[in-house]
Amino acid sequence: MQVKQELKQEKGTTGVFRKEKEGFNPFKMAQQQFDRIADQLNLDEQTRELLRNPLREYSFSIPIRMDDGTIKVFRGFRVQHNDARGPCKGGIRFHPQETQDTVRALSMWMTWKCSVADIPLGGGKGGIICDPHNLSEREQEKLCRGWVRQIARDIGPVRDVPAPDVMTSGQHMLWIMDEYETIMGGQYPGLITGKPVELGGSRGRTEATGYGIIYILRELLKEMKMDIAKTTTSIQGFGNVARYSAELLLQYGGTVVSVSCWDQVENRTYSYYKKTGIKLDELIKITDRFGTIDKKQAEKLGYENRPGDDWLTQDVDILIPAALEHSITEENVNQIKPRVKIVICGANGPVTPEAEDYLEKKGVIVVPDFLANAGGVVCSYFEQVQSNQNYYWTKEEVLGKLDNKMTDAFYKVWELSKRKKIRVSDAAYMIAISRVAEACKMRGWV
Ligand code: NAD
Prior knowledge:
It is a single chain. By secondary structure, the chain is of the alpha/beta class. Among the domains are: 59-188, Rossmann fold; 207-367, Rossmann fold (3-Layer(aba) Sandwich), CATH 3.40.50. It is 45% helix and 17% strand. The protein contains 17 helices and twelve strands. The strands form two sheets. A seven-stranded mixed β-sheet has the order 9-8-7-6-10-11-12. Strand 7 and strand 8 form a beta hairpin. Helix 4 runs parallel beside helix 6, helix 15 (375-389) crosses helix 16 and helix 16 (395-420) crosses helix 17. The longest helix is centred in the C-terminal third of the chain and has 26 residues, at 395-420. The N and C termini lie far apart (48 Å). The chain binds nicotinamide-adenine-dinucleotide. The site of nicotinamide-adenine-dinucleotide has 28 residues, from helix 2, helix 10 and strand 7.
Protein backbone atom coordinates (compact mmCIF):
# COMPACT_ATOMS: atom_id res chain seq x y z
CA MET A 1 0.00 0.00 0.00
CA GLN A 2 1.31 3.43 -0.95
CA VAL A 3 0.76 4.93 2.48
CA LYS A 4 3.13 2.45 4.06
CA GLN A 5 5.58 2.57 1.19
CA GLU A 6 6.14 6.30 1.49
CA LEU A 7 7.20 6.02 5.12
CA LYS A 8 10.59 5.11 3.71
CA GLN A 9 11.17 8.74 2.87
CA GLU A 10 11.69 9.53 6.52
CA LYS A 11 15.25 8.30 6.67
CA GLY A 12 16.64 10.45 3.94
CA THR A 13 14.98 13.66 4.94
CA THR A 14 14.99 14.04 8.68
CA GLY A 15 18.31 15.88 8.82
CA VAL A 16 16.71 19.27 9.04
CA PHE A 17 14.81 18.15 12.10
CA ARG A 18 17.82 16.42 13.63
CA LYS A 19 19.92 19.52 13.31
CA GLU A 20 17.15 21.72 14.63
CA LYS A 21 17.12 19.64 17.79
CA GLU A 22 20.82 20.36 18.16
CA GLY A 23 20.09 24.11 18.16
CA PHE A 24 20.26 24.57 14.40
CA ASN A 25 17.49 26.64 12.87
CA PRO A 26 16.88 25.90 9.16
CA PHE A 27 14.96 29.14 8.65
CA LYS A 28 17.86 31.22 10.00
CA MET A 29 20.15 29.33 7.62
CA ALA A 30 17.83 29.98 4.66
CA GLN A 31 17.76 33.68 5.58
CA GLN A 32 21.55 33.82 5.86
CA GLN A 33 21.92 32.22 2.42
CA PHE A 34 19.46 34.76 1.07
CA ASP A 35 21.19 37.74 2.74
CA ARG A 36 24.57 36.79 1.24
CA ILE A 37 23.17 36.72 -2.30
CA ALA A 38 21.00 39.80 -1.68
CA ASP A 39 24.25 41.66 -0.84
CA GLN A 40 25.85 40.51 -4.09
CA LEU A 41 22.73 41.55 -6.02
CA ASN A 42 22.53 44.90 -4.20
CA LEU A 43 18.86 44.29 -3.46
CA ASP A 44 17.05 47.24 -1.88
CA GLU A 45 15.85 47.02 1.72
CA GLN A 46 12.14 46.59 0.89
CA THR A 47 12.76 43.68 -1.49
CA ARG A 48 15.01 42.02 1.09
CA GLU A 49 12.39 42.45 3.79
CA LEU A 50 9.76 40.93 1.52
CA LEU A 51 11.82 37.96 0.34
CA ARG A 52 13.54 36.98 3.57
CA ASN A 53 10.13 36.21 5.14
CA PRO A 54 7.11 34.25 3.94
CA LEU A 55 4.22 36.21 2.48
CA ARG A 56 1.63 34.18 4.38
CA GLU A 57 1.61 31.58 7.13
CA TYR A 58 -1.18 29.40 8.44
CA SER A 59 -1.06 27.38 11.62
CA PHE A 60 -4.15 25.53 12.80
CA SER A 61 -5.61 22.73 14.91
CA ILE A 62 -6.99 19.54 13.39
CA PRO A 63 -9.22 17.59 15.78
CA ILE A 64 -9.56 13.91 14.86
CA ARG A 65 -11.62 11.12 16.33
CA MET A 66 -9.13 8.29 16.72
CA ASP A 67 -9.90 4.61 16.13
CA ASP A 68 -10.28 4.05 19.90
CA GLY A 69 -13.03 6.72 20.06
CA THR A 70 -10.94 9.44 21.75
CA ILE A 71 -10.43 12.88 20.21
CA LYS A 72 -6.88 14.01 19.49
CA VAL A 73 -5.91 17.48 18.31
CA PHE A 74 -3.06 17.75 15.80
CA ARG A 75 -1.20 20.86 14.61
CA GLY A 76 -1.14 21.67 10.90
CA PHE A 77 0.80 24.26 8.90
CA ARG A 78 0.99 25.84 5.50
CA VAL A 79 3.52 28.50 4.62
CA GLN A 80 3.37 30.41 1.33
CA HIS A 81 6.74 32.03 0.92
CA ASN A 82 6.22 33.87 -2.34
CA ASP A 83 3.78 33.73 -5.25
CA ALA A 84 4.95 36.67 -7.37
CA ARG A 85 5.82 34.28 -10.25
CA GLY A 86 2.83 31.96 -9.90
CA PRO A 87 0.86 29.82 -7.42
CA CYS A 88 2.86 28.43 -4.50
CA LYS A 89 4.13 24.88 -4.86
CA GLY A 90 5.47 22.52 -2.24
CA GLY A 91 4.98 19.35 -0.27
CA ILE A 92 3.03 18.40 2.82
CA ARG A 93 5.10 16.56 5.40
CA PHE A 94 3.93 14.29 8.20
CA HIS A 95 6.56 14.35 10.91
CA PRO A 96 6.60 14.20 14.73
CA GLN A 97 9.20 16.98 14.93
CA GLU A 98 7.69 19.27 12.32
CA THR A 99 8.16 22.95 13.23
CA GLN A 100 6.98 26.22 11.79
CA ASP A 101 10.58 27.31 11.13
CA THR A 102 11.36 24.12 9.22
CA VAL A 103 8.31 24.69 7.05
CA ARG A 104 9.29 28.37 6.56
CA ALA A 105 12.78 27.40 5.39
CA LEU A 106 11.52 24.70 3.06
CA SER A 107 8.96 27.05 1.53
CA MET A 108 11.69 29.61 0.81
CA TRP A 109 13.89 26.95 -0.80
CA MET A 110 10.91 25.93 -2.97
CA THR A 111 10.62 29.53 -4.22
CA TRP A 112 14.28 29.45 -5.35
CA LYS A 113 13.97 25.96 -6.87
CA CYS A 114 10.91 26.88 -8.98
CA SER A 115 12.56 30.12 -9.99
CA VAL A 116 15.92 28.65 -11.06
CA ALA A 117 14.02 26.03 -13.11
CA ASP A 118 12.02 28.94 -14.58
CA ILE A 119 8.59 27.44 -13.98
CA PRO A 120 5.72 29.85 -13.22
CA LEU A 121 5.28 28.78 -9.60
CA GLY A 122 6.27 30.13 -6.21
CA GLY A 123 7.30 28.41 -3.01
CA GLY A 124 5.14 26.78 -0.37
CA LYS A 125 5.38 23.99 2.19
CA GLY A 126 3.09 22.46 4.75
CA GLY A 127 2.87 19.78 7.30
CA ILE A 128 1.19 18.15 10.23
CA ILE A 129 2.94 17.27 13.48
CA CYS A 130 2.27 13.54 13.69
CA ASP A 131 3.97 10.17 13.41
CA PRO A 132 2.18 8.15 10.73
CA HIS A 133 3.91 4.98 11.97
CA ASN A 134 1.51 5.19 14.92
CA LEU A 135 -1.61 6.08 12.93
CA SER A 136 -4.00 3.76 11.15
CA GLU A 137 -4.82 4.41 7.52
CA ARG A 138 -8.25 5.69 8.54
CA GLU A 139 -6.71 8.13 11.01
CA GLN A 140 -4.30 9.37 8.33
CA GLU A 141 -7.21 9.89 5.94
CA LYS A 142 -9.04 11.91 8.60
CA LEU A 143 -5.91 14.01 9.15
CA CYS A 144 -5.65 14.77 5.43
CA ARG A 145 -9.30 15.72 5.21
CA GLY A 146 -9.03 17.79 8.41
CA TRP A 147 -5.99 19.63 7.02
CA VAL A 148 -7.92 20.60 3.86
CA ARG A 149 -10.98 21.74 5.81
CA GLN A 150 -8.81 24.32 7.61
CA ILE A 151 -7.04 25.67 4.53
CA ALA A 152 -9.28 24.94 1.52
CA ARG A 153 -9.99 28.58 0.74
CA ASP A 154 -6.31 29.51 0.77
CA ILE A 155 -4.99 26.76 -1.50
CA GLY A 156 -6.09 25.63 -4.97
CA PRO A 157 -4.90 25.32 -8.57
CA VAL A 158 -4.43 29.09 -8.90
CA ARG A 159 -3.25 29.77 -5.34
CA ASP A 160 -1.14 27.03 -3.83
CA VAL A 161 -0.56 23.49 -5.07
CA PRO A 162 0.56 20.87 -2.50
CA ALA A 163 2.41 17.60 -3.22
CA PRO A 164 3.69 14.51 -1.37
CA ASP A 165 6.75 14.94 0.82
CA VAL A 166 8.26 13.25 3.86
CA MET A 167 5.96 10.39 4.93
CA THR A 168 3.09 11.39 2.64
CA SER A 169 2.17 9.67 -0.62
CA GLY A 170 -0.08 9.75 -3.69
CA GLN A 171 -2.82 8.24 -1.51
CA HIS A 172 -2.67 11.18 0.91
CA MET A 173 -2.89 13.54 -2.07
CA LEU A 174 -6.03 11.81 -3.34
CA TRP A 175 -7.76 12.13 0.05
CA ILE A 176 -6.81 15.82 0.10
CA MET A 177 -8.10 16.32 -3.46
CA ASP A 178 -11.32 14.47 -2.72
CA GLU A 179 -12.08 16.58 0.36
CA TYR A 180 -11.23 19.80 -1.50
CA GLU A 181 -13.55 18.85 -4.38
CA THR A 182 -16.33 18.07 -1.90
CA ILE A 183 -15.94 21.49 -0.27
CA MET A 184 -15.63 23.38 -3.57
CA GLY A 185 -18.18 21.35 -5.49
CA GLY A 186 -16.28 20.49 -8.67
CA GLN A 187 -13.39 18.58 -10.18
CA TYR A 188 -10.02 20.15 -9.32
CA PRO A 189 -7.25 17.68 -10.23
CA GLY A 190 -4.87 20.65 -10.58
CA LEU A 191 -5.17 21.27 -6.83
CA ILE A 192 -2.44 18.79 -6.10
CA THR A 193 0.44 16.89 -7.71
CA GLY A 194 2.00 13.50 -7.06
CA LYS A 195 -1.26 11.77 -7.98
CA PRO A 196 -1.21 8.24 -9.40
CA VAL A 197 -1.20 8.28 -13.24
CA GLU A 198 -4.70 6.69 -13.30
CA LEU A 199 -6.12 9.69 -11.42
CA GLY A 200 -4.41 12.64 -13.09
CA GLY A 201 -0.73 12.05 -12.30
CA SER A 202 1.94 12.69 -14.93
CA ARG A 203 3.77 10.03 -16.83
CA GLY A 204 7.52 10.39 -16.36
CA ARG A 205 7.31 11.64 -12.75
CA THR A 206 9.06 8.51 -11.47
CA GLU A 207 12.04 9.13 -13.73
CA ALA A 208 11.98 12.95 -13.55
CA THR A 209 14.39 13.73 -10.72
CA GLY A 210 17.07 11.23 -11.73
CA TYR A 211 16.81 11.98 -15.44
CA GLY A 212 16.87 15.75 -14.72
CA ILE A 213 20.21 15.31 -12.96
CA ILE A 214 21.68 13.54 -15.97
CA TYR A 215 20.32 16.06 -18.50
CA ILE A 216 22.29 18.71 -16.61
CA LEU A 217 25.34 16.48 -16.24
CA ARG A 218 25.28 15.74 -20.00
CA GLU A 219 25.44 19.46 -20.81
CA LEU A 220 28.06 20.20 -18.16
CA LEU A 221 30.29 17.45 -19.58
CA LYS A 222 29.93 18.98 -23.05
CA GLU A 223 31.09 22.31 -21.63
CA MET A 224 34.04 20.57 -19.98
CA LYS A 225 34.86 18.79 -23.24
CA MET A 226 34.44 15.40 -21.61
CA ASP A 227 32.84 12.50 -23.47
CA ILE A 228 29.99 11.18 -21.31
CA ALA A 229 30.53 7.67 -22.71
CA LYS A 230 34.07 7.68 -21.30
CA THR A 231 33.16 8.85 -17.82
CA THR A 232 33.02 6.85 -14.62
CA THR A 233 30.67 7.66 -11.76
CA SER A 234 30.05 6.62 -8.19
CA ILE A 235 26.61 7.11 -6.63
CA GLN A 236 25.46 7.27 -3.03
CA GLY A 237 22.07 5.58 -2.61
CA PHE A 238 20.03 3.17 -4.69
CA GLY A 239 16.54 4.63 -4.35
CA ASN A 240 14.43 6.53 -6.86
CA VAL A 241 16.87 9.36 -7.57
CA ALA A 242 19.99 7.17 -7.69
CA ARG A 243 18.45 4.49 -9.90
CA TYR A 244 17.03 6.79 -12.54
CA SER A 245 20.24 8.84 -12.60
CA ALA A 246 22.14 5.59 -13.18
CA GLU A 247 19.62 4.44 -15.81
CA LEU A 248 20.03 7.47 -18.06
CA LEU A 249 23.76 7.73 -17.48
CA LEU A 250 24.16 4.10 -18.58
CA GLN A 251 21.96 4.77 -21.62
CA TYR A 252 24.38 7.57 -22.56
CA GLY A 253 27.22 5.04 -22.36
CA GLY A 254 28.71 6.12 -19.03
CA THR A 255 30.01 3.64 -16.46
CA VAL A 256 28.77 3.54 -12.87
CA VAL A 257 31.24 1.61 -10.74
CA SER A 258 29.63 1.92 -7.35
CA VAL A 259 26.28 2.47 -5.64
CA SER A 260 25.49 2.37 -1.95
CA CYS A 261 22.55 1.80 0.33
CA TRP A 262 21.29 1.59 3.86
CA ASP A 263 20.94 -2.03 4.98
CA GLN A 264 17.64 -2.30 6.87
CA VAL A 265 18.55 -5.60 8.52
CA GLU A 266 22.03 -4.75 9.71
CA ASN A 267 21.33 -1.04 10.33
CA ARG A 268 24.44 0.10 8.49
CA THR A 269 25.47 1.26 5.06
CA TYR A 270 27.18 -0.69 2.30
CA SER A 271 28.72 0.25 -1.04
CA TYR A 272 28.60 -2.21 -3.94
CA TYR A 273 31.46 -2.02 -6.39
CA LYS A 274 32.12 -3.53 -9.81
CA LYS A 275 35.15 -2.38 -11.74
CA THR A 276 33.54 -3.01 -15.13
CA GLY A 277 30.39 -1.13 -14.06
CA ILE A 278 27.06 -2.04 -12.48
CA LYS A 279 24.23 -3.64 -14.44
CA LEU A 280 21.08 -1.87 -13.38
CA ASP A 281 18.51 -4.60 -14.09
CA GLU A 282 20.31 -7.26 -12.11
CA LEU A 283 20.78 -4.94 -9.12
CA ILE A 284 17.15 -3.74 -9.16
CA LYS A 285 15.98 -7.37 -9.08
CA ILE A 286 17.77 -7.87 -5.74
CA THR A 287 16.76 -4.54 -4.16
CA ASP A 288 13.77 -4.15 -1.85
CA ARG A 289 11.26 -1.31 -2.00
CA PHE A 290 13.28 0.72 0.53
CA GLY A 291 16.32 0.72 -1.76
CA THR A 292 18.29 -1.91 0.17
CA ILE A 293 20.38 -4.25 -1.98
CA ASP A 294 20.55 -7.91 -0.92
CA LYS A 295 24.15 -8.42 0.19
CA LYS A 296 24.48 -12.16 -0.50
CA GLN A 297 22.87 -11.97 -3.94
CA ALA A 298 25.05 -8.99 -4.89
CA GLU A 299 28.17 -10.94 -3.97
CA LYS A 300 26.96 -13.86 -6.11
CA LEU A 301 26.63 -11.46 -9.03
CA GLY A 302 30.24 -10.40 -8.62
CA TYR A 303 29.78 -7.13 -6.75
CA GLU A 304 32.39 -6.32 -4.15
CA ASN A 305 30.74 -5.54 -0.87
CA ARG A 306 32.51 -2.58 0.73
CA PRO A 307 31.96 -0.19 3.66
CA GLY A 308 29.22 2.45 3.25
CA ASP A 309 31.58 5.40 2.73
CA ASP A 310 33.51 3.63 -0.03
CA TRP A 311 31.37 5.23 -2.77
CA LEU A 312 32.99 8.56 -1.89
CA THR A 313 36.59 7.44 -2.29
CA GLN A 314 36.33 5.98 -5.80
CA ASP A 315 38.80 7.04 -8.47
CA VAL A 316 36.05 8.34 -10.78
CA ASP A 317 35.18 11.49 -12.73
CA ILE A 318 31.78 12.13 -11.18
CA LEU A 319 30.15 11.71 -7.75
CA ILE A 320 26.37 11.76 -7.35
CA PRO A 321 25.28 11.90 -3.71
CA ALA A 322 21.65 10.75 -4.09
CA ALA A 323 20.72 9.36 -0.69
CA LEU A 324 20.53 11.89 2.11
CA GLU A 325 21.71 15.22 3.46
CA HIS A 326 25.16 15.94 5.00
CA SER A 327 27.01 13.16 3.15
CA ILE A 328 30.06 15.17 2.09
CA THR A 329 31.35 17.16 5.04
CA GLU A 330 34.58 18.78 6.18
CA GLU A 331 35.45 15.48 7.90
CA ASN A 332 35.41 13.31 4.78
CA VAL A 333 35.78 15.72 1.83
CA ASN A 334 39.55 15.26 1.71
CA GLN A 335 39.03 11.54 0.95
CA ILE A 336 37.66 12.44 -2.48
CA LYS A 337 40.16 11.42 -5.16
CA PRO A 338 41.88 14.14 -7.25
CA ARG A 339 40.40 12.64 -10.43
CA VAL A 340 36.85 13.72 -9.43
CA LYS A 341 35.80 16.72 -11.54
CA ILE A 342 32.09 17.01 -10.76
CA VAL A 343 29.86 16.53 -7.72
CA ILE A 344 26.22 16.78 -8.79
CA CYS A 345 23.77 16.85 -5.87
CA GLY A 346 20.83 14.48 -6.29
CA ALA A 347 19.79 14.50 -2.64
CA ASN A 348 18.79 17.63 -0.76
CA GLY A 349 21.72 19.22 1.09
CA PRO A 350 24.31 16.44 0.65
CA VAL A 351 27.33 18.78 0.60
CA THR A 352 27.97 21.07 3.57
CA PRO A 353 29.11 24.66 2.85
CA GLU A 354 32.59 23.88 4.27
CA ALA A 355 32.94 20.85 1.99
CA GLU A 356 31.77 22.90 -0.99
CA ASP A 357 34.44 25.55 -0.22
CA TYR A 358 37.08 22.83 -0.14
CA LEU A 359 35.92 21.27 -3.40
CA GLU A 360 35.75 24.60 -5.22
CA LYS A 361 39.33 25.36 -4.17
CA LYS A 362 40.36 22.02 -5.68
CA GLY A 363 38.63 22.94 -8.94
CA VAL A 364 35.73 20.50 -8.53
CA ILE A 365 32.41 21.74 -9.92
CA VAL A 366 29.57 21.31 -7.45
CA VAL A 367 26.10 21.47 -8.99
CA PRO A 368 23.72 22.46 -6.15
CA ASP A 369 20.69 20.40 -5.19
CA PHE A 370 18.01 23.00 -5.98
CA LEU A 371 19.21 23.10 -9.59
CA ALA A 372 20.28 19.47 -10.07
CA ASN A 373 17.20 17.80 -8.55
CA ALA A 374 14.63 20.33 -9.84
CA GLY A 375 13.43 17.74 -12.39
CA GLY A 376 10.93 16.49 -9.82
CA VAL A 377 9.21 19.83 -9.35
CA VAL A 378 9.38 20.60 -13.08
CA CYS A 379 7.48 17.37 -13.74
CA SER A 380 5.02 18.25 -10.95
CA TYR A 381 4.43 21.52 -12.78
CA PHE A 382 3.78 19.51 -15.96
CA GLU A 383 1.31 17.39 -13.98
CA GLN A 384 -0.50 20.55 -12.88
CA VAL A 385 -0.63 21.86 -16.45
CA GLN A 386 -2.01 18.54 -17.72
CA SER A 387 -4.55 18.33 -14.88
CA ASN A 388 -5.74 21.90 -15.45
CA GLN A 389 -6.25 21.33 -19.16
CA ASN A 390 -7.59 17.80 -18.56
CA TYR A 391 -5.40 16.43 -21.36
CA TYR A 392 -2.47 14.14 -20.70
CA TRP A 393 0.87 13.82 -22.51
CA THR A 394 2.84 10.70 -23.37
CA LYS A 395 5.92 9.83 -21.34
CA GLU A 396 8.13 10.81 -24.30
CA GLU A 397 6.50 14.25 -24.46
CA VAL A 398 6.95 14.77 -20.73
CA LEU A 399 10.61 13.73 -20.75
CA GLY A 400 11.33 15.80 -23.87
CA LYS A 401 9.87 18.90 -22.22
CA LEU A 402 11.76 18.09 -19.03
CA ASP A 403 15.03 17.84 -20.94
CA ASN A 404 14.43 21.27 -22.52
CA LYS A 405 13.66 22.87 -19.16
CA MET A 406 16.62 21.38 -17.34
CA THR A 407 19.03 22.13 -20.18
CA ASP A 408 17.85 25.75 -20.33
CA ALA A 409 18.09 26.14 -16.57
CA PHE A 410 21.62 24.74 -16.57
CA TYR A 411 22.91 27.02 -19.35
CA LYS A 412 21.50 30.18 -17.71
CA VAL A 413 23.34 29.29 -14.51
CA TRP A 414 26.51 28.10 -16.25
CA GLU A 415 26.82 31.24 -18.38
CA LEU A 416 26.45 33.50 -15.33
CA SER A 417 28.93 31.44 -13.39
CA LYS A 418 31.49 31.75 -16.22
CA ARG A 419 30.80 35.43 -16.87
CA LYS A 420 31.06 36.50 -13.23
CA LYS A 421 33.66 33.86 -12.32
CA ILE A 422 31.51 32.68 -9.42
CA ARG A 423 30.66 29.21 -8.22
CA VAL A 424 27.72 27.40 -9.81
CA SER A 425 25.61 27.47 -6.63
CA ASP A 426 26.03 31.26 -6.24
CA ALA A 427 25.06 31.77 -9.88
CA ALA A 428 21.99 29.57 -9.37
CA TYR A 429 20.93 31.54 -6.28
CA MET A 430 21.52 34.85 -8.06
CA ILE A 431 19.30 33.87 -10.96
CA ALA A 432 16.59 32.44 -8.72
CA ILE A 433 16.46 35.41 -6.34
CA SER A 434 16.72 38.11 -8.99
CA ARG A 435 13.83 36.58 -10.98
CA VAL A 436 11.56 36.63 -7.94
CA ALA A 437 12.71 40.14 -6.96
CA GLU A 438 11.97 41.34 -10.49
CA ALA A 439 8.49 39.78 -10.44
CA CYS A 440 7.74 41.54 -7.13
CA LYS A 441 8.91 44.85 -8.65
CA MET A 442 6.89 44.39 -11.84
CA ARG A 443 3.78 43.75 -9.76
CA GLY A 444 4.43 46.96 -7.86
CA TRP A 445 4.93 45.22 -4.51
CA VAL A 446 8.23 46.91 -3.79
P1 NAD B 1 14.58 6.68 -1.60
O1 NAD B 1 14.01 6.49 -0.26
O2 NAD B 1 13.90 6.14 -2.80
O3 NAD B 1 16.08 6.11 -1.62
C1 NAD B 1 17.03 6.45 -0.68
C2 NAD B 1 18.23 5.54 -0.89
O4 NAD B 1 19.29 6.00 -0.07
C3 NAD B 1 17.99 4.08 -0.55
O5 NAD B 1 18.67 3.26 -1.47
C4 NAD B 1 18.64 3.96 0.82
O6 NAD B 1 19.08 2.63 1.09
C5 NAD B 1 19.81 4.89 0.64
N1 NAD B 1 20.40 5.38 1.89
C6 NAD B 1 19.77 5.85 2.97
N2 NAD B 1 20.68 6.20 3.90
C7 NAD B 1 21.88 5.96 3.35
C8 NAD B 1 23.21 6.12 3.78
N3 NAD B 1 23.48 6.61 5.00
N4 NAD B 1 24.22 5.78 2.95
C9 NAD B 1 23.96 5.28 1.74
N5 NAD B 1 22.73 5.10 1.25
C10 NAD B 1 21.71 5.44 2.06
O7 NAD B 1 14.79 8.27 -1.74
P2 NAD B 1 14.87 9.14 -3.07
O8 NAD B 1 13.49 9.51 -3.49
O9 NAD B 1 15.80 8.50 -4.03
O10 NAD B 1 15.51 10.49 -2.50
C11 NAD B 1 16.90 10.59 -2.22
C12 NAD B 1 17.23 12.04 -1.87
O11 NAD B 1 16.83 12.89 -2.95
C13 NAD B 1 16.52 12.60 -0.64
O12 NAD B 1 17.41 13.58 -0.07
C14 NAD B 1 15.32 13.33 -1.21
O13 NAD B 1 14.85 14.36 -0.36
C15 NAD B 1 15.95 13.91 -2.47
N6 NAD B 1 14.99 14.26 -3.53
C16 NAD B 1 14.16 13.33 -4.05
C17 NAD B 1 13.30 13.68 -5.07
C18 NAD B 1 12.41 12.66 -5.71
O14 NAD B 1 11.70 13.02 -6.67
N7 NAD B 1 12.42 11.40 -5.30
C19 NAD B 1 13.25 15.01 -5.53
C20 NAD B 1 14.12 15.95 -4.99
C21 NAD B 1 14.99 15.57 -3.98
